[in-house]
Amino acid sequence: MKRIVIVGGGTGGTILANNLARRLERELEAGRVGITVLSASAQHMYQPGLLYVAFARMAPAELSVDEASLLRPGIDFAVDPVTAFDLDHKEVKTQSGKTHGYDYLVIATGSRALPENVPGLKESAHHVYTEEAALKTCAALKAFEGGRIAVVTGVPHKCPMVPLEITFMMYEYFRDRGLLDKVSFTYTYPIGRVHSLENVAKWAVGEFARLGIHYETLFNVKEVDGAKRQVKSEEGGTLDYDLLIAVPPHKGMEVVETNGLGGSGWIPTHRTTLAMEGREDVFVLGDTTNLPISKAGSTAHYEAEVLGENLANLVTRGLALRAYEGKVFCFIEAGKDRATYASFDYQHPPEPQPPTRAIHWFKLAYNRLYWNSVRGLL
Questions:
Q1: The domain containing residue 177 runs over which residues?
Q2: Are 208 and 80 found together in one domain?
Q3: Residue 77 domain-assigned?
Q4: Which residues contact 211 (CB under 8 A, 6 or more apart)?
């Protein structure tokens, strides 16, 4: 029997498992293939929804369902996080002490926000990368009656459009509350433009000009002085604030680092095959890769579709045919009821179009359709 072990029950791991179970249905039923998903949690969270929680437009209860309910019949699922990888012996060990052998291993462990890695950031800033943090951000926005709002961004981070989205959404939030004349915005970004994607940056600068949002580039956060309400940058700048919104720097999961699979938790990954560098039987999905593309749910989705086809072919025919081309699709909320998107790959940069109400409603619809997407029904 060919054994496929998927470590991680997030977007990439779930879509891949369902994709394989569909493609290998006969082999599963005949006992010629086994698919196992090992997760650190029984719950599957739709993480992009946390941005809407911060603005009281979604409730946390809408964002999570039981992971087991998302998986097709025939998939073995266990809430038993992997603690050790023995790639030379084709085994992983879990928290419960079990050992799982594999013929093919997929690592899709995701990433984590680490505001604590910047002195003062965790204590002084608000963000939207956990349920608790999103609820605290919601409370802070509701209580804010005016002053200086600063948006700071650490790198790398997942959900590449969040710095822009939260800025535009705050603008309209305070406009709706009649407080725009009492609020000022300063958006900062660590490189020499306002976004890592050049065409997205050009589009955003136009939006900032239209709305009167100030921005500073080449601003890498060094530390935050909460008592003085100041952010200091590595470049020597100082930014005063009354409300600090952060996109914290991210790292891969600790288990990747402690097992020596990749620095900062990012595993060296082949850009088209998605194989771990130096391994033909280990593959990497989503945030866990070190690929120079956006860490987004759509990235994991497209990667999982390619890898699903290739793994199924490896199991049944002994060869993989399809190449991942770096495809990514990101919605960009441009306010309360307007949105655009960025669609791109390794060869083609994004070309954001003017935001529309229709794209915004499509994004809201996808928030609800996500569960069908990870089930493989879309």
A1: 114-250
A2: no
A3: yes
A4: 168, 171
The CA distances from residue 278 to 51, 174, 261, 282, in Å, are 38, 51, 11, 9
Task: Tell me the C-alpha to C-alpha distance, in Å, between residue 272 and each of 23, 156, 309, 318.
Answer: 21, 21, 13, 18
Cβ pair 84, 254 in contact under 8 A: no
Cα–Cα distance measured from residue 21 to residue 72, given in angstroms and rounded to the nearest whole number: 7
Q: Which two tokens stand for residue 232?
A: 């200091």
The model's pTM is: 0.96
- Cα–Cα distance, 268 to 252 (Å, whole number): 12
Render pLDDT for 141-172 as a digit per residue (tens, 0 to 9).
Answer: 999 999 999 999 999 999 999 999 999 999 99
pLDDT of residue 351: 95
Contact between 223 and 187 under an 8 Å Cβ cutoff? The reply is: no
Is 106 part of any domain? yes
| Cβ–Cβ under 8 Å, residues 167 and 161 | no
Amino acid found at 352? P
332, 342 in Cβ contact below 8 A? yes
Single-letter amino acid, residue 209? A
In this structure, what are the phi and psi dihedrals at residue 235, rounded to the nearest 5 degrees? -85, 0
Say if 208 falls within a structural domain: yes
Domain end (from 189, 217, 250):
250
Number of domains in the chain: 2
